[in-house]
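[step 3/7] inverse_fold.run input=structure_tokens len=330
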């Protein structure tokens, strides 16, 4: 099968660029010193992950990086480069695109949080780590911080998904893509200025975001998976919210609301950037994380804080967030 780029007479084989990207991503992780490993779960899930930087017993901070939907761990390479000398860095792959095995091809929010907890227990002996999550990875990070707070020293949420009080119908219309026209609608929400690499690889993007793993994850999301202000108020560790000023998927207004709910939060707004700040503005993203790290290096001890007062919220339901016939990617 072949696709044709819109507005171009150039043809390319379906999936070739995507497979090449995944292969190159794995090679780059190894060149950075990443040691690919596998964590076997009792049952159908087998997590592939990379361990890099300082080895066990060498000291230093521990960081765990959770990538977004339809992506792979190598998207964190700029941050890995900044952390690798004096930190231990663990990068799990959250779908079959990176080699993790699961029934649907991708880890759901609950599965991702549970497997990350297992990873911290196995690789870090249960010692708390700084947890970084982008988009869907941020959603998993919040769920882990709520369910296993003893495993999280600091929380870095980069344009995170999952906050309940949002326009989910609008979000669905953006992320439920089936063709290149859908990619063209989504890109302006993802980027303030689309990187040349993403313009060139629209077909591969479409292939990844319509893969079985992406569709199964979106199909499994329910309102009960989301979190609200009351949930965020329970997270006592230092937290950074890093938001693209022009994020068209999860609006900056949501970031400000989340920052107000988190007791120990800092909000960093990346000027001119869209949702995919790791691709569009990697140096700004790394700079914000560096600032947060410096500002909180000696303040990671847990403290008991009074929870902000919020009006009563309706209980979340198990109804799907996205329509069964419109499950693309985000």
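[step 3/7] decode complete -> sequence:
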């Amino acid at each position: 099968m072949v696709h044709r780029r819109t507005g171009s007479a150039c043809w390319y084989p379906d999936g070739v660029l995507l497979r090449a990207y995944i292969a190159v991503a794995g090679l780059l992780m190894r060149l950075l010193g990443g040691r690919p490993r596998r964590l076997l779960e009792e049952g159908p899930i087998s997590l592939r992950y990379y361990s890099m930087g300082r080895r066990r017993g060498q000291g230093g901070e521990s960081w765990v990086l959770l990538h977004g939907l339809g992506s792979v761990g190598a998207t964190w390479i700029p941050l890995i480069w900044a952390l690798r000398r004096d930190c231990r860095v663990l990068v799990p792959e959250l779908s079959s695109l990176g080699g993790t095995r699961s029934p649907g091809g991708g880890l759901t929010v609950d599965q991702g949080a549970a497997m990350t907890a297992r990873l911290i227990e196995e690789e870090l002996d249960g010692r708390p780590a700084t947890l970084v999550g982008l988009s869907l990875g941020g959603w998993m990070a919040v769920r882990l911080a709520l369910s296993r707070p003893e495993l999280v020293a600091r929380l870095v949420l980069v344009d995170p998904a999952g906050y309940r009080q949002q326009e989910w119908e609008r979000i669905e219309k953006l992320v439920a893509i089936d063709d290149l026209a859908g990619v063209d609608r989504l890109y302006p929400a993802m980027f303030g200025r689309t990187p040349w690499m993403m313009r060139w690889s629209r077909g591969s993007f479409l292939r990844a975001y319509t893969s079985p793993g992406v569709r199964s994850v979106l199909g499994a999301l329910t309102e009960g998976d989301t979190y609200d202000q009351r949930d965020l108020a329970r997270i006592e560790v230092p937290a950074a919210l890093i938001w693209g000023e022009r994020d068209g998927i999860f609006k900056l207004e949501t970031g400000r609301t989340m920052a107000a709910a988190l007791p120990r939060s800092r909000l960093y707004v990346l000027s001119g950037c869209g949702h995919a700040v790791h691709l569009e503005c990697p140096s700004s993203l790394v700079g914000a994380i560096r600032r947060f790290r410096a500002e909180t290096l000696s303040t990671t001890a847990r403290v008991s804080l009074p929870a902000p007062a919020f009006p009563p919220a309706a209980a979340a339901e198990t109804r799907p967030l996205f329509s069964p016939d419109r499950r693309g990617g985000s």
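[step 4/7] annotate
The chain is about 40% helix and 15% strand.
Residues 1-14, 326-330 have pLDDT under 50 and may be disordered.
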